[in-house]
Amino acid sequence: FIKKIPKDAEASNVLVGEVEFLEKPFVAFVRLLQATMLGGVTEVPVPTRFLFILLGPAGKAKSYNEIGRAIATLMVDDLFSDVAYKARDREDLIAGIDEFLDEVIVLPPGEWDPNIRIEPPKKVPSAEKRKSVFSLNEVGQMNGTAGGAGAGGGGGGSDDGEMPEVHEIGEELAWTGRFCGGLYLDIKRKLPWFPSDFYEAFHIQSISAILFIYLGCITNAITFGGLLGDATDNYQGVMESFLGTAMAGSMFCLFAGQPLIILSSTGPILIFEKLLFDFSKGNGIDYMEFRLWIGLHSALQCLILVATDASFIIKYITRFTEEGFSTLISFIFIYDAIKKMIGAFKYYPINSDFKPDYVTMYKCECIAPDPAPVAPNTTNVSLYNAINLTALDWTQLSKKECLKYGGSLVGKSCKFVPDLALMSFILFFGTYSMTLTLKKFKFSRYFPTKLRKLISDFSIFMSILMFVGLDVLFGLNTPKLQVPTDFKPTRVDRGWFVFPFGKNPWWVYLASALPALLVTILIFMDQQITAVIVNRKEHKLRKAAGYHLDLFWVGILMAVCSFMGLPWYVAATVISIAHIDSLKMETETSAPGEQPQFLGVREQRVTGIIVFVLTGISVFLAPILKYIPMPVLYGVFLYMGVASLNGIQFWDRCKLFLMPAKHQPDYVFLRHVPLRRIHLFTLVQIVCLAVLWILKSTVAAIIFPVMILALILVRRLLDFVFSQHDLAWIDNIIPEKEKKKEDDKKKKKK
């Protein structure tokens, strides 16, 4: 129990009892000058500062106990505790009790059902406002009055608890007006934290994060590499995807401003590569050289954006845009995982034609081929082979041997395969559901706290081991993870370096700046929106963000990848959120019945670096990785997509459409904004999300980054539909500096 008590804590002992020699109750409230150890009075060796003693005549023990409970409740209230420390006499304590009772909600006995939700109060008591009641007491004027009359004298709109905290813009996004000013400040802010970015990773939680993110990255690299190979005629394939992911990811995690961000290639980049290859092929332009110049122009444009502090426009991206983008990426993960699982049912159809009653008719025989006439010039070898074939017992051959020697399979069961689709679904859904269950195991009542947390941290790894073992046990030929085994380019006619001159006309080197602009917009928006989501204040990150430094390294790595003929990389939203979730820290000890408190995220560079190094050496781990079934990894993808939806207010508001008012959770925005206005705001977001989804699913995905910019414009237009009060609760109001400018313009017009 001593571990659950904060440092420098002092005890308040509440003692009540019955005695025979008293005719009326005796009450004493004692504050000791110095906290003193009172031996066995307290459960644990904590010094006592306060004593409350209530003795009374026999027959009223229940009443005495309730009074003691009330005093104990008072003493754990922060404000009354301050009053107790500073009180000079009995009247001061009574004034503190009166103030406490003013904010207490009384539930009549016998009329309250614990199963019924209590409607929240219209106005939440503000702790700061309560403390202001006693502001004069600190200068020696505590005189037994609660100061209630004085507290209301300066009432203002901002102090009534009706507005949330202002959406503060960090100094990282301030426009310096100097060449590379933001980049310089990012480096200056991040440099002192650099040593701790390594030694803070020495924790067992880091191991579970590495295993989890590694499997997500390797699956993504294989999937994207395969699609990229199909789109570019194998000029870039799985091997290039592996090498690019390992090199770009590890370099970014080592030097970037926010090492918790995980780099990956995205769908819009894939579509751009396909269009670029088709254009090059149709116009007789060398694809790799053309792509190199586009990458160099885009890298230069990214560096120009860094030098001019262009990242400051990110401060106009509010929750509306953040959550629209984040939800879209989460839905893509969920959709792709389910789509690939459904594809297994088409590739391995369920044996619906099998009828147990006709099992006697199911058979498969190997029939020898018809003997071909021997030509006059046939060699002895062919005669020897022919003799061998005639000597075979065709009825004893396996399916593979029968087909190898030219035989044919005859019978109704020849095409029978086990229900691989059903087995794949068991592996897929089992991995997802077991991971979800084990992740919540830390809130269970079973086993000690540390063991529960360990199981929760390693939930994904344990689920994967469980279902890989199940697959090995059954021995079915489910689709497995295919990893390249040779370290060489996918195409034999290309190397690891792309020469910039000689294959295309000179004007291509200049004209490539135009398509590079689209790539730059895509890279900028993907990278910076993901960075905003990762750096949310809800994550309680201690170390400063580095938007300019992140974009600088993305630009540098883009140029390097272009020279090596590797895919381009940008921040992966869902995998980055999963990385943060796997590194969240909570209090290891808490009072009985109290939920663990979220402390922040284990901010370090080691997990990301090791993940990408492992991705690079996966070529040598192929003999082990080949046992992992793809449906298991699809289940991990589904979990990552679903888990990244947690904490997104937009998703919480979507679920409100299906909930009656009395069953809705007690979200703070429901207390301040009418439900119909919340539904209207949510509908606007749903329409925007649908438009983005349609664009993503067509060739028009090339303008996807431009549509993300359009979301900012849509949000600005919502200022004319919703009040600033409503937007402050369900979104964020635009930065104050911009608002002041607009107010000044309105005044001038008037």
UniProtKB/TrEMBL annotation:
Q: Transmembrane stretches, by residue range?
A: 209-228, 248-272, 292-314, 420-438, 458-476, 506-525, 546-570, 606-625, 632-651, 683-714
Q: How does it sit in the membrane?
A: Multi-pass membrane protein
Query: Domain named Bicarbonate transporter-like transmembrane: which ranges?
Result: 178-734
Q: Which GO terms describe its cellular component?
A: basolateral plasma membrane
**Which domain of life, per UniProt?**
Eukaryota
Q: Which InterPro entries match?
A: Band3_cytoplasmic_dom, HCO3_transpt-like_TM_dom, HCO3_transpt_euk, Na/HCO3_transpt, PTrfase/Anion_transptr
Band 3 cytoplasmic domain segment(s) = 1-114
Q: Name one GO biological process term.
A: regulation of intracellular pH
Which family is this protein grouped under?
Answer: Belongs to the anion exchanger (TC 2.A.31) family.
Q: Which Pfam families match?
A: Band_3_cyto, HCO3_cotransp
Record key words, sorted: Cell membrane, Ion transport, Membrane, Transmembrane, Transmembrane helix, Transport
Q: Where in the cell?
A: Basolateral cell membrane; Membrane
Species whose genome carries this gene:
Phoenicopterus ruber ruber
Query: What name has this protein been given in UniProt?
Result: Anion exchange protein
* Molecular function via GO: monoatomic anion transmembrane transporter activity; sodium:bicarbonate symporter activity; solute:inorganic anion antiporter activity
